[in-house]
Amino acid sequence: MKILRKLASNLFDLVFPVECLGCRKDGVFVCDECLRGVKLKKDFPCVVCGREAFFGRTHRECSRETSIDGVLCATDYKDELVGKMIRTYKYNLVRDLGPSLGWVMMRYLRGLMGRGELSKQRARKEMLEMTPEFLRFFTPSLVLPLGKGEITNRIVHQPEKPVLIPVPLHARRLRERGFNQAEILAGELSKYFDWDVQTDILTRKKYTTAQVNLKADERARNIKNAFDNNAPAFAEATAGKKTRKTNLEIKNRTVILVDDVLTTGATLNEAGMVLKNMGAREVWGVCLAKD
Ligand SMILES: [Zn+2]
Ligand SMILES: [Zn+2]
Predict the structure, then answer these.
(1) Does 3 reside within a domain?
(2) Pick from 282, 286, 285, 284: nearest CA to 253
(3) In this structure, is residue 15 part of a structural domain?
(4) Global pTM?
(5) What backbone phi and psi angles, to 5 degrees, belong to 247?
(6) What is the Å distance from ligand 2's center to 68 Cα?
(7) SS3 state at 165
(8) How many domains does the chain have?
(9) 187 CA → ligand 1 middle, Å
(10) Which of 30, 109, 169, 262 is most buried (most C-beta within 10 Å)?
(11) Burial, 201: exposed, middle or buried (Cβ in 10 Å; 0-12, 13-18, 19+)?
(12) SS3 for 169?
């Protein structure tokens, strides 16, 4: 079977020679040079209103409309090479592009972590608190400057590691595609940052039509109630009369939902609601590209 697949892949290469999507150099889907040249996003639009938000954190006044505490997108889907890479990865099923795309996300997050250091100069405690915890994780040197009457600078507490959860595909879609593109990206991030990936907590119970051609309100309707919890590690938590199922893996932790493309945020919102019901403290979306 393996040999057959190898043969098929060699034949495929003969008929469709592999070349860099950026510069058409032979033998790779994307060459290192083109990959390093991918422009990383510098603005932080709020997932609800699209206006600039500090490190992508959902504005307080927008937070009633989403379960997502913030989003970070590494690149712009409109960037020619980025768009090509994602379409080739996802629709032409070139799984091998996954690690390259994951590398781009890693480079983006690393860059932000450096910027976390900058907020030290901005020096206001509220500002620091608004920086996503998982970014602070990498800047242990982050200290608050001396306040009045204080003898030493206070070191901001070392935050807990976040949990990565790729946006799941419906079982049928997974069979059609053969892999979950978000799961591969999450796996890459996990390797770079030593964060855990959880793939058995959140499931997709609704087979949805592709979101691509839908308008914003149609997207929201299409994805409504698409996700469910699938948590073996349940603990029953009773609050008043309501019994809530909490998941011990994510209870009181920051969850990073990983996806390839962010459009309206409707998918993240639906998934985030389920995760918050399971006890997640914060749910962030980290995506490869913003459409
Ligand atoms: Zn190239
Ligand atoms: Zn907003």
Answers:
(1) no
(2) 282
(3) no
(4) 0.84
(5) -110, 125
(6) 11
(7) strand
(8) 1
(9) 24
(10) 30
(11) buried
(12) coil
